[in-house]
Amino acid sequence: MTPRTPQPPSARSGPPPGEHPAPGGFGTPPGGHAEPWRPPWVRAAKAGWPVAAAVVVAALQVVGSTAAGRHQSGRVPLDAFGYVLLVLGPVLLVLRRRWPVAVVAGTSLVTAVYLTAGYPYGPVFLSWVIACCAAVGSGHRRAAWAGLGGVYLVHALVTFAVPADWQRAAPSTITWWQELGLIAWLLLVVSVAEIVRFRREQMAAHREYEQQLAQRRANEERLRMARELHDILAHSLSLINIQAGVALALIDSRPEQARTALTTIKATSKEALGEVRQVLGTLRAPGAAAPRGPAPGLDRLDELTEQAERVGLEVEVHETGRRRALSAGVDLTAFRIVQEALTNVIRHSIARQAAVVLDWRDPDSLVVKVDDPGPASLGDAGGTGSGLAGMRERVAAFGGSITAGPVAPSAGGGFRVRAVLPTRQGPTVEPTGPAGEGPRPTGERPESRGEGQGPTGERECS
To answer: Can you give the pLDDT of all 462 residues of the chain as single tens digits?
Structure first.
């Protein structure tokens, strides 16, 4: 049985009708959902904002330039063409979000023509500056700086290079200090636009990172839950299936043995239901990261051997070296590897014996080995082949290694799973017997084991 990994939200269909995704990902929650619903008048006001802003800028330019012209006797008075230029720049601003480069070029040309015609200085620069700032904010920095340099070049030529006889207005009386002030003001405006652009890019990158991180955590959590459910159900249902077959075969001829098989089914299903409820509790609790109950570890190894013995599989457990307390993740991973390997023996092998070896001699690692001496069964056990891949993922999560495959006939044949799990040096715990003492009898519980306190190992089994 292989659990289906939930489809990530990003792979689902688009937002519901009537909702629109947030532009540029701003404010979009992880998974790409649409932004919250807003009243129609809010959307209408947002859509009409460019036009309203253009009207305000046009009014400022017309009124401001008219007032400024009264105090500039040497400049050409505003006429119909001058007013057209003052209004044309703000009109172009309506399109600044759709075509920012074209708007920069248009407003720069309008401003250059206005200055060349000798009209009064004033807020005519306003629409041009807004267009340059909008271009910088949208990422078209070169266009903005080109427009800035072009207009200033026209202004400098008209002011200092063009002979007075060629100009409509009187010769300019602007000093170099005033010119430097104008340059500083223009650079300040565009620099502020650059800072705003950089800040927006930082915020966008940070939000994108947070979204990706949240999505990755959600995917990892779903995968962890799927694997935990698979670990629980694959092992328990295999035992239940075998015991149910025994009960059906013996219910008439040997009712007592059938009763024993049914009792085993009840105990196994009860244990599996408890573990499933623990995992499902995480699914129901928003924001919960993992089940809070104790996760299985090597302290429950005897339960696995007892369950295997009930279905006719004799398991010998060998331990060499001095046992150490393991981290919760390594402890759970070691338990799941043994559980998956024994499940595969029950489902896929005709052998009625298996050997589990825990090698503690290396202070930096734990070696877990499960040997199946028998050949594979001829029937189809219904496996999906994902168990070995799940074990490899478990071990890789802790930087370990695993090998699984048939054993050469010269070495005894069968199938072997061998995993090396890196461990931290922890306090030693007395093993159930001295190193090299031999197999520990099935069902004999150890007096002391490393504790497993939390479900941090999270992989898949067959």
So the answer is: 444 444 444 444 444 443 334 333 333 444 444 455 566 655 655 666 778 888 888 888 888 888 887 877 767 788 888 888 888 888 888 888 888 888 888 888 888 888 888 788 888 888 888 888 888 878 787 887 888 778 878 877 777 665 555 555 555 556 667 677 777 877 887 788 778 878 888 888 888 888 888 888 777 777 777 766 766 677 677 778 777 887 888 888 888 878 887 887 887 777 777 777 766 666 655 554 544 556 788 988 998 888 888 878 889 999 999 988 888 888 988 998 998 888 888 888 888 889 999 999 998 999 999 998 877 665 544 555 566 777 887 788 888 999 988 888 777 788 899 999 998 644 444 444 433 344 444 334 333 333 333 333 333 333
Is residue 400 classed exposed, middle or buried when 0-12, 13-18 and 19+ CB atoms within 10 A define those classes?
buried
Q: What is the pTM of this model?
A: 0.44
Q: Where are the domains of the chain?
A: 37-174, 313-376+385-441+455-462
**CA-to-CA distance for 451 and 327, rounded, in angstroms?**
8
Rounded Cα–Cα distance for residues 200 and 137 (Å): 8
Q: Which residues contact 26 (CB under 8 A, 6 or more apart)?
A: 203, 204, 207
In whole angstroms, give the CA distance from residue 408 to residue 412. Answer: 7
Nearest to 34 by CA among 23, 47, 46: 23
Q: How many CB atoms lie within 10 A of CB 300?
A: 18
Integer Cα distance of 430 and 453 in angstroms: 20
CATH code given to domain 313-376+385-441+455-462: 3.30.565.10
DSSP bridge pairs for 365: 422
The number of beta carbons lying within 10 Å of the beta carbon of residue 197 is 18
Tell me phi and psi for residue 320, to 5 degrees: -125, 140
